[in-house]
Amino acid sequence: DQQVKQNSPSLSVQEGRISILNCDYTNSMFDYFLWYKKYPAEGPTFLISISSIKDKNEDGRFTVFLNKSAKHLSLHIVPSQPGDSAVYFCAFQGGSEKLVFGKGTKLTVNP
Amino acid sequence: KAGVTQTPRYLIKTRGQQVTLSCSPISGHRSVSWYQQTPGQGLQFLFEYFSETQRNKGNFPGRFSGRQFSNSRSEMNVSTLELGDSALYLCASSLGELAGVDTQYFGPGTRLTVL
């Protein structure tokens, strides 16, 4: 059974618009929530994280939202840039595994 | 500061063989974790080592093992390779703190192909 679901395998947006990436989870034991992005032939790169006691965290163009009652995590990128095109993974810390990852959403930002 | 390095970057083996992958963490990081990435299963946690001891373990068979040395460098071994072991193996290092978010930094991975 999947503890984490990224239901959209791909997302395409125009440059300058908002990109919204989503994750749903089932394990209430998670206490930290992270987003990574991955370019081909590279390892994942850490983007931003949020603690379970918060509902929003911002870092420049990136904002992460946590809705604990709905067990839902989202990442907003505003404005989107072509260099943001990558695969984005949500990841969860706090269970028995070091990090539990979603299967990723491929974001394409069109010029 | 140098990032996480993994060697080799690419490897081709045949079924039944065994393989050892190596990971050098970021200087000062004491925790090293290993992950397997496949198209079907995504990124899955294998195990974590901290101060030369395995601290966490994922749901993988005993053919997958690892170790960590006193300088925090880590190796991962897979014995009796199967076709399904073909994957990208990623190593990640972190400070290893148990309180707070323990942000992991990933290496570029080792692409293992089993024929």
Could you walk me through the main structural features you see in this protein, from its secondary elements to its overall organization?
The complex is a heterodimer of chains A (111) and B (115). By secondary structure, chain A is mainly beta. Chain A is 0% helix and 54% strand. Chain A contains no helices and 11 strands. Chain A has strands at 4-5, 10-14, 19-25, 32-38, 45-51, 56-59, 62-67, 72-77, 86-93, 100-101, 105-110. In chain A, strands 2, 4, 5, 9, 10 and 11 form a 6-stranded mixed beta sheet that branches. A 5-stranded antiparallel beta sheet of chain A has the order 1-3-8-7-6, with no helix packed on it. The radius of gyration of chain A is 13 Å and the shape is globular. By secondary structure, chain B is an all-beta fold. Chain B has strands at 5-7, 10-13, 19-24, 31-38, 42-50, 53-57, 64-68, 74-78, 87-94, 105-106, 110-114. In chain B, strands 2, 4, 5, 6, 9, 10 and 11 form a 7-stranded mixed beta sheet that branches. A 4-stranded antiparallel beta sheet of chain B has the order 1-3-8-7, with no helix packed on it. In chain B, strand 7 (64-68) and strand 8 (74-78) form a beta hairpin. The N and C termini of chain B lie far apart (37 Å). At the A-B interface, strand 4, strand 5, strand 9 and strand 10 of A face strand 5 and strand 10 of B.
